[in-house]
Amino acid sequence: MERRNFLGLTGMAMVPVAGCVSNTDDTLDSGGGNDGDGSDDQTTQTTQSDDTEETTPEDASGEVIVGQLVEGKQMAMVVESVSRTTKIGEFQEADEGNEFVIVKLAVKNTTESKYATFSGFLQTQLKDSEGYTYSQTVAVTGNAFEGGELAPGEVGRGDIVYEVPTDASELVLQFDLSSFSFFRYNQIVIDLSKEAETTASLEQTLRVPLNSIGDTVSKDDVAVKVNSVETETSLSSFTEAEEGHEFVILDITITNNTSEDLSLSTLLQMRMKDGQGNFHSMSISALSELEKSYNESQPLTSGESRRGKIPYEVPEDVSPLYWTFEFSIWVEGSKAFWQIR
């Protein structure tokens, strides 16, 4: 695993931030699929990478503001917006005297062929004018930023949430990179009290094969197939999609052809994303209503195939829509894409 170079700030001094970039040449054995574009039309300010490495002092750091693009050889990122509220959804409320700060973050892997890992949860914290810091809060916004592996050209876009006192002011978002051996630089600071005149946007331009419904992808003797896809707005009187949303239900089969038992995680290895890079979470309530939901409670034994359904709640008719599967959360370059629509 390499330590990689910095991201430069558009319109300001160069600033550091980078992802863990894999040099692996491992390939996925796909039963189908074409090179992906995966983009939606939108204003974009980003650069493509030539996958080369540069050097810069290890103690470099820099500051940016909301809407300002940070870019470089491996990754680009931007805080697109910031909002404050005392309630998220129907059930989550801030403690008395507190409120939630919701930061909309977008990160792109700008390399041509290398995978990159980015963890918003482990790498960020808020800091106020008095020097107090606040860790990320687990919140169900419907579009939570899910860190992990980003394929070449892939964008990760979503919310990171913090709970702070209502009188907390001059908040800055700190990306602390010093504790990660694969980062060369120490810190990026984003001033959340200031906004650029225009907000930069990162466009997803997938440079990986896109598989279709019915295709099987294999890696290291594990095979994954998307058998079919269906949509529903209601699964019972108690489980209905929010207005303007629908459940996209995948029927999948996973086969373990290794010589050992295989444990899988629907939350860590399987995700639904759209063409802008937004994450759409698996619906736990919908999963409980499915008669043939995918069972991950027991490992797959050697030679076993297991079939089941997994539901995701997404905006109605959102397109393009992708389902991803990471064959290993420890090994980069093991992520496969299926275009659902």
Mean pLDDT: 82
* First-residue to last-residue Cα separation: 34 Å
What's the β-strand tally? 28
Number of helices: 3
Into how many domains do the coordinates divide?
A: 2
CATH topology of the largest domain: Immunoglobulin-like
> Structural class from helices and strands?
mainly beta
Helix share, percent: under 10%
* CATH architecture identity of the largest domain: Sandwich
Outline type? globular
CATH class type of the largest domain = Mainly Beta
Describe the structure concisely for a colleague.
The protein is mainly β and 341 residues long. It is built from three helices and 28 strands.
What can you see in these coordinates?
This protein folds into two domains: 7-23 and 36-195, Immunoglobulin-like (Sandwich); 212-339, Immunoglobulin-like (Sandwich), CATH 2.60.40.1240. Strand 7 (70-72) and strand 8 form a beta hairpin. It contains three helices and 28 strands. Residues 1-26, 38-58 and 179-184 have low confidence and may be disordered. It is mainly beta and 341 residues long. 41% of the residues are buried. The strands form six sheets. It has a seven-stranded antiparallel β-sheet with strand order 2-1-7-8-11-17-15, with no helix packed on it. The protein has a six-stranded mixed β-sheet with strand order 5-20-28-27-24-25. A five-stranded antiparallel β-sheet has the order 4-21-22-23-26.
